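Journal club prep, notes for RB
We'll compare a predicted complex against what the paper describes. Inputs for the copper (II) ion case:
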Amino acid sequence: MKSFIVILFTFMAFSASAETIRMVQAAKAFLGNITDEQASVAYDDPIIEEENKVEELKLKVGDKIQFINRDEVSHNVSAKASDVVLFDVKLQDPGAKNDKLIELKSKGEYTVQCAIHPKMKIKLKVE
Ligand SMILES: [Cu+2]
């Protein structure tokens, strides 16, 4: 019985643990966890873009996000729901990343969007 409880609590601790998501900006899109090598050729390779493009994310309160700009142009990414700003990464030049991870603190449905390239968009659901 005692070991069962230990296993149960271990499982609960793991299932409740927060994740860190890395979003890579390349080819003027949000791509998932791609390698630096893939990011460097994504501009000329629509298959890499197609296979890794992220348009929807479901995350939990407590999860963290990092935005890494591996593009050839600057991006200015924020997440909003009407007038509520969940986070604002601000301007990231090529090669930049936010060293301080963004922790998601509020539930809701947001749009992650680049102010410079409005077509760069992710629907973000925080549960
Ligand atoms: Cu952009």
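Talking point for the session: The chain has a mean pLDDT of 91.
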